[in-house]
Amino acid sequence: MGSAFSKQKDKRKRTLSFRRTGVSAEPTAVDTTYIPKVVPKSDDARKRIKKAIEKSYIFRGLDKDQIKTVIDAVEEEKHRPGDVIIKQGESGLNFYLIEAGSCNVYISKNQTTDPVIVHSYSSGDSFGELALLYDAPRAATVKASTDCILWAMDRGTFRAILMKSTSQKRDLYEEFLSNVPLLKTLDAYERSAIADVLECEYIKAGASIIVEGTPGDKFYFLEQGTAEAKTKGQSVMKYGVGDYFGELALLNNEPRAASVIAITDCKVCYIDGESFKRLLGKLEDILQRKKSEYAHATAAIH
Protein backbone atom coordinates (compact mmCIF):
# COMPACT_ATOMS: atom_id res chain seq x y z
CA MET A 1 0.00 0.00 0.00
CA GLY A 2 2.91 2.39 0.34
CA SER A 3 6.26 3.37 -1.08
CA ALA A 4 8.60 5.22 1.28
CA PHE A 5 11.31 7.68 0.40
CA SER A 6 13.78 9.98 2.12
CA LYS A 7 12.92 13.60 1.60
CA GLN A 8 15.71 15.78 0.26
CA LYS A 9 17.19 18.14 2.84
CA ASP A 10 18.04 20.88 0.38
CA LYS A 11 14.80 22.00 -1.15
CA ARG A 12 14.89 22.95 -4.78
CA LYS A 13 13.65 26.34 -5.83
CA ARG A 14 10.05 25.89 -6.81
CA THR A 15 9.54 26.19 -10.53
CA LEU A 16 6.69 25.50 -12.86
CA SER A 17 5.86 21.84 -13.39
CA PHE A 18 6.58 22.17 -17.09
CA ARG A 19 10.33 22.60 -16.59
CA ARG A 20 10.97 20.15 -19.43
CA THR A 21 9.74 22.75 -21.90
CA GLY A 22 11.90 25.46 -20.38
CA VAL A 23 9.13 27.42 -18.69
CA SER A 24 10.41 28.61 -15.33
CA ALA A 25 9.40 31.98 -13.97
CA GLU A 26 7.60 33.83 -11.26
CA PRO A 27 3.87 34.30 -11.80
CA THR A 28 2.92 37.57 -13.46
CA ALA A 29 1.42 40.17 -11.11
CA VAL A 30 -2.36 40.44 -10.95
CA ASP A 31 -3.76 43.50 -12.75
CA THR A 32 -5.64 45.42 -10.07
CA THR A 33 -7.07 47.84 -12.65
CA TYR A 34 -8.88 45.10 -14.55
CA ILE A 35 -12.49 45.82 -15.50
CA PRO A 36 -14.48 42.57 -15.75
CA LYS A 37 -15.52 41.55 -19.25
CA VAL A 38 -19.21 40.85 -19.88
CA VAL A 39 -20.24 38.70 -22.84
CA PRO A 40 -24.04 38.57 -23.33
CA LYS A 41 -25.45 35.06 -23.12
CA SER A 42 -28.75 33.28 -22.55
CA ASP A 43 -29.97 31.96 -19.22
CA ASP A 44 -29.54 28.44 -20.60
CA ALA A 45 -25.90 29.15 -21.45
CA ARG A 46 -25.30 30.59 -17.99
CA LYS A 47 -26.73 27.41 -16.41
CA ARG A 48 -24.47 25.25 -18.60
CA ILE A 49 -21.40 27.28 -17.64
CA LYS A 50 -22.26 27.05 -13.95
CA LYS A 51 -22.65 23.27 -14.24
CA ALA A 52 -19.27 23.00 -16.01
CA ILE A 53 -17.63 25.16 -13.33
CA GLU A 54 -19.01 22.91 -10.58
CA LYS A 55 -17.20 19.93 -12.18
CA SER A 56 -13.87 21.72 -12.27
CA TYR A 57 -11.55 21.68 -9.26
CA ILE A 58 -9.78 24.83 -10.35
CA PHE A 59 -12.85 26.93 -9.51
CA ARG A 60 -13.20 25.61 -5.97
CA GLY A 61 -12.89 28.34 -3.38
CA LEU A 62 -14.38 31.11 -5.52
CA ASP A 63 -17.15 33.12 -3.93
CA LYS A 64 -20.50 33.88 -5.61
CA ASP A 65 -19.35 37.22 -7.00
CA GLN A 66 -16.23 35.67 -8.53
CA ILE A 67 -18.26 32.85 -10.09
CA LYS A 68 -20.63 35.43 -11.59
CA THR A 69 -17.65 37.31 -13.04
CA VAL A 70 -16.40 34.08 -14.62
CA ILE A 71 -19.82 33.26 -16.08
CA ASP A 72 -20.16 36.78 -17.45
CA ALA A 73 -16.72 36.76 -19.05
CA VAL A 74 -16.37 33.38 -20.76
CA GLU A 75 -17.19 32.84 -24.42
CA GLU A 76 -18.37 29.62 -26.05
CA GLU A 77 -16.15 27.86 -28.58
CA LYS A 78 -17.13 24.77 -30.57
CA HIS A 79 -14.48 22.56 -32.12
CA ARG A 80 -14.41 19.55 -34.40
CA PRO A 81 -12.02 16.58 -34.08
CA GLY A 82 -8.53 17.64 -35.10
CA ASP A 83 -9.04 21.35 -34.48
CA VAL A 84 -6.01 23.01 -32.87
CA ILE A 85 -7.16 24.93 -29.79
CA ILE A 86 -3.77 26.09 -28.56
CA LYS A 87 -0.39 25.65 -30.27
CA GLN A 88 2.94 25.00 -28.60
CA GLY A 89 5.21 28.03 -28.73
CA GLU A 90 2.49 30.61 -29.34
CA SER A 91 1.42 33.34 -26.91
CA GLY A 92 -1.37 32.48 -24.49
CA LEU A 93 -4.57 34.48 -24.81
CA ASN A 94 -7.22 32.27 -23.20
CA PHE A 95 -7.86 29.74 -20.46
CA TYR A 96 -10.30 26.96 -21.39
CA LEU A 97 -12.93 24.94 -19.55
CA ILE A 98 -14.36 21.86 -21.27
CA GLU A 99 -18.13 21.53 -21.05
CA ALA A 100 -18.40 18.52 -23.37
CA GLY A 101 -16.04 16.40 -25.44
CA SER A 102 -12.36 15.58 -25.06
CA CYS A 103 -8.97 16.97 -26.13
CA ASN A 104 -5.47 15.56 -26.44
CA VAL A 105 -2.27 17.30 -25.35
CA TYR A 106 0.79 17.05 -27.60
CA ILE A 107 4.39 18.04 -26.87
CA SER A 108 7.17 18.28 -29.42
CA LYS A 109 10.66 18.30 -27.90
CA ASN A 110 12.17 19.90 -30.99
CA GLN A 111 11.23 20.91 -34.52
CA THR A 112 12.52 17.70 -36.09
CA THR A 113 10.47 15.23 -34.03
CA ASP A 114 6.79 14.47 -34.26
CA PRO A 115 4.68 15.62 -31.32
CA VAL A 116 3.56 12.91 -28.90
CA ILE A 117 0.36 12.69 -26.85
CA VAL A 118 1.16 13.21 -23.17
CA HIS A 119 -2.28 13.76 -21.68
CA SER A 120 -6.02 13.91 -22.40
CA TYR A 121 -8.73 16.19 -21.07
CA SER A 122 -12.48 15.56 -20.81
CA SER A 123 -15.64 17.24 -19.52
CA GLY A 124 -14.95 19.34 -16.41
CA ASP A 125 -11.22 19.64 -17.10
CA SER A 126 -9.49 22.92 -17.86
CA PHE A 127 -6.25 23.92 -19.56
CA GLY A 128 -4.26 26.83 -20.88
CA GLU A 129 -3.44 28.51 -17.58
CA LEU A 130 0.34 28.05 -17.68
CA ALA A 131 1.09 30.62 -20.36
CA LEU A 132 -1.20 33.07 -18.57
CA LEU A 133 0.27 32.42 -15.13
CA TYR A 134 3.86 32.87 -16.25
CA ASP A 135 3.46 35.12 -19.31
CA ALA A 136 5.29 32.45 -21.32
CA PRO A 137 4.70 30.69 -24.67
CA ARG A 138 2.34 27.75 -24.77
CA ALA A 139 4.09 24.67 -23.36
CA ALA A 140 2.06 22.22 -25.47
CA THR A 141 -0.43 21.89 -28.30
CA VAL A 142 -4.02 20.95 -27.48
CA LYS A 143 -6.27 19.47 -30.17
CA ALA A 144 -9.91 18.43 -30.03
CA SER A 145 -10.18 14.63 -30.21
CA THR A 146 -14.01 14.71 -30.42
CA ASP A 147 -16.62 17.37 -31.04
CA CYS A 148 -16.06 19.81 -28.17
CA ILE A 149 -17.83 22.63 -26.42
CA LEU A 150 -15.38 24.87 -24.58
CA TRP A 151 -15.71 28.05 -22.56
CA ALA A 152 -12.81 30.43 -23.16
CA MET A 153 -11.76 32.87 -20.44
CA ASP A 154 -9.69 35.87 -21.48
CA ARG A 155 -6.30 36.61 -19.96
CA GLY A 156 -7.56 39.56 -17.91
CA THR A 157 -10.35 37.63 -16.22
CA PHE A 158 -8.06 34.69 -15.49
CA ARG A 159 -5.43 36.90 -13.90
CA ALA A 160 -7.98 38.83 -11.86
CA ILE A 161 -9.97 35.84 -10.60
CA LEU A 162 -8.00 32.59 -10.78
CA MET A 163 -4.34 33.43 -11.02
CA LYS A 164 -3.47 33.81 -7.35
CA SER A 165 -5.20 30.66 -6.11
CA THR A 166 -3.96 28.55 -9.06
CA SER A 167 -0.31 29.58 -8.77
CA GLN A 168 -0.30 29.13 -4.99
CA LYS A 169 -1.66 25.59 -5.23
CA ARG A 170 0.76 24.63 -7.99
CA ASP A 171 3.72 26.00 -6.03
CA LEU A 172 2.58 24.23 -2.88
CA TYR A 173 2.39 20.73 -4.36
CA GLU A 174 4.78 20.73 -7.32
CA GLU A 175 7.87 19.86 -5.30
CA PHE A 176 6.07 17.39 -3.04
CA LEU A 177 4.60 15.43 -5.98
CA SER A 178 7.86 15.39 -7.92
CA ASN A 179 9.48 13.59 -4.96
CA VAL A 180 6.81 10.89 -4.54
CA PRO A 181 8.36 7.69 -5.95
CA LEU A 182 5.02 6.39 -7.25
CA LEU A 183 4.73 9.42 -9.53
CA LYS A 184 8.26 9.29 -10.95
CA THR A 185 7.01 7.61 -14.13
CA LEU A 186 4.51 10.41 -14.77
CA ASP A 187 5.56 13.43 -16.79
CA ALA A 188 5.33 16.98 -15.48
CA TYR A 189 2.02 17.55 -17.27
CA GLU A 190 0.42 14.60 -15.47
CA ARG A 191 1.77 15.59 -12.05
CA SER A 192 0.48 19.10 -12.65
CA ALA A 193 -3.00 17.68 -13.27
CA ILE A 194 -2.79 15.78 -9.97
CA ALA A 195 -1.77 18.96 -8.12
CA ASP A 196 -4.92 20.64 -9.42
CA VAL A 197 -7.27 18.06 -7.89
CA LEU A 198 -5.50 17.44 -4.57
CA GLU A 199 -7.39 18.33 -1.42
CA CYS A 200 -5.72 18.29 1.98
CA GLU A 201 -6.72 17.86 5.60
CA TYR A 202 -5.00 17.77 8.97
CA ILE A 203 -5.36 14.71 11.21
CA LYS A 204 -4.62 14.71 14.92
CA ALA A 205 -2.40 11.99 16.43
CA GLY A 206 -4.50 8.93 17.26
CA ALA A 207 -7.32 9.80 14.86
CA SER A 208 -8.38 7.57 11.98
CA ILE A 209 -7.64 8.57 8.40
CA ILE A 210 -9.27 5.41 7.02
CA VAL A 211 -11.64 3.08 8.87
CA GLU A 212 -11.62 -0.65 8.11
CA GLY A 213 -14.82 -1.87 6.46
CA THR A 214 -16.03 1.51 5.22
CA PRO A 215 -16.45 2.32 1.49
CA GLY A 216 -13.30 3.56 -0.25
CA ASP A 217 -13.66 6.88 -2.02
CA LYS A 218 -10.22 8.53 -1.63
CA PHE A 219 -6.57 7.82 -2.39
CA TYR A 220 -4.12 9.40 0.05
CA PHE A 221 -0.58 10.78 0.07
CA LEU A 222 1.04 11.48 3.43
CA GLU A 223 2.59 14.95 3.26
CA GLN A 224 3.51 15.39 6.93
CA GLY A 225 3.76 13.05 9.93
CA THR A 226 3.63 9.26 10.34
CA ALA A 227 0.77 6.79 10.27
CA GLU A 228 0.16 3.05 10.42
CA ALA A 229 -2.24 0.54 8.90
CA LYS A 230 -4.03 -1.76 11.31
CA THR A 231 -6.32 -4.71 10.80
CA LYS A 232 -7.96 -6.65 13.61
CA GLY A 233 -6.20 -4.25 15.97
CA GLN A 234 -2.69 -5.22 14.87
CA SER A 235 -0.23 -3.02 12.99
CA VAL A 236 0.61 -4.29 9.49
CA MET A 237 2.38 -1.33 7.89
CA LYS A 238 3.81 2.09 8.74
CA TYR A 239 3.85 5.20 6.55
CA GLY A 240 6.09 8.24 6.35
CA VAL A 241 6.22 11.39 4.26
CA GLY A 242 5.60 10.63 0.57
CA ASP A 243 3.93 7.27 1.18
CA TYR A 244 0.50 6.55 -0.25
CA PHE A 245 -2.43 4.40 0.82
CA GLY A 246 -6.11 3.81 0.18
CA GLU A 247 -5.71 2.52 -3.36
CA LEU A 248 -6.85 -1.07 -2.72
CA ALA A 249 -10.49 -0.21 -2.10
CA LEU A 250 -10.54 1.91 -5.26
CA LEU A 251 -8.78 -0.68 -7.42
CA ASN A 252 -10.96 -3.54 -6.17
CA ASN A 253 -14.18 -1.58 -5.61
CA GLU A 254 -14.34 -3.11 -2.14
CA PRO A 255 -14.61 -1.79 1.45
CA ARG A 256 -11.45 -0.64 3.21
CA ALA A 257 -9.28 -3.66 4.08
CA ALA A 258 -7.59 -1.94 7.03
CA SER A 259 -7.72 1.15 9.17
CA VAL A 260 -5.03 3.81 8.88
CA ILE A 261 -4.30 5.69 12.10
CA ALA A 262 -2.23 8.85 12.54
CA ILE A 263 0.73 8.10 14.83
CA THR A 264 1.66 11.78 14.98
CA ASP A 265 -0.20 14.88 13.83
CA CYS A 266 -0.47 14.41 10.07
CA LYS A 267 -1.25 16.33 6.93
CA VAL A 268 -2.72 14.15 4.19
CA CYS A 269 -3.52 15.04 0.60
CA TYR A 270 -6.17 13.02 -1.19
CA ILE A 271 -7.63 12.43 -4.63
CA ASP A 272 -11.28 11.44 -4.99
CA GLY A 273 -12.17 8.13 -6.62
CA GLU A 274 -13.18 9.55 -9.99
CA SER A 275 -9.97 11.57 -10.36
CA PHE A 276 -7.94 8.57 -9.18
CA LYS A 277 -9.21 6.47 -12.08
CA ARG A 278 -8.85 9.28 -14.60
CA LEU A 279 -5.41 10.57 -13.64
CA LEU A 280 -3.61 7.49 -12.33
CA GLY A 281 -4.65 4.95 -14.93
CA LYS A 282 -1.14 4.41 -16.25
CA LEU A 283 0.04 3.61 -12.70
CA GLU A 284 -2.47 0.82 -12.19
CA ASP A 285 0.06 -1.94 -12.86
CA ILE A 286 2.37 -0.52 -10.18
CA LEU A 287 -0.50 -0.19 -7.72
CA GLN A 288 -1.70 -3.73 -8.43
CA ARG A 289 1.79 -5.08 -7.63
CA LYS A 290 1.67 -3.34 -4.27
CA LYS A 291 -1.31 -5.50 -3.36
CA SER A 292 1.02 -8.48 -2.86
CA GLU A 293 3.03 -6.52 -0.28
CA TYR A 294 -0.09 -5.81 1.73
CA ALA A 295 -1.35 -9.38 1.37
CA HIS A 296 1.96 -10.71 2.71
CA ALA A 297 1.83 -8.30 5.67
CA THR A 298 -1.71 -9.23 6.64
CA ALA A 299 -1.24 -12.98 6.15
CA ALA A 300 1.04 -13.11 9.17
CA ILE A 301 -1.74 -12.12 11.56
CA HIS A 302 -4.51 -14.38 10.23
TrEMBL record:
CDD domains: CAP_ED. It comes from the Eukaryota. SUPFAM superfamilies: cAMP-binding domain-like. Pfam families: cNMP_binding. One of its GO terms (biological process) is cellular response to stress. The keyword Phosphoprotein applies. Residues 1-20 are annotated as: Disordered. 3',5'-cyclic AMP 2 binds at E247, R256. Residues 58-179, 182-297 form the Cyclic nucleotide-binding domain. Keywords: cAMP, cAMP-binding, Nucleotide-binding, Phosphoprotein, Repeat. GO terms for molecular function: cAMP binding; cAMP-dependent protein kinase inhibitor activity; protein kinase A catalytic subunit binding. GO terms for cellular component: cAMP-dependent protein kinase complex; cytosol. This is cAMP-dependent protein kinase regulatory subunit.
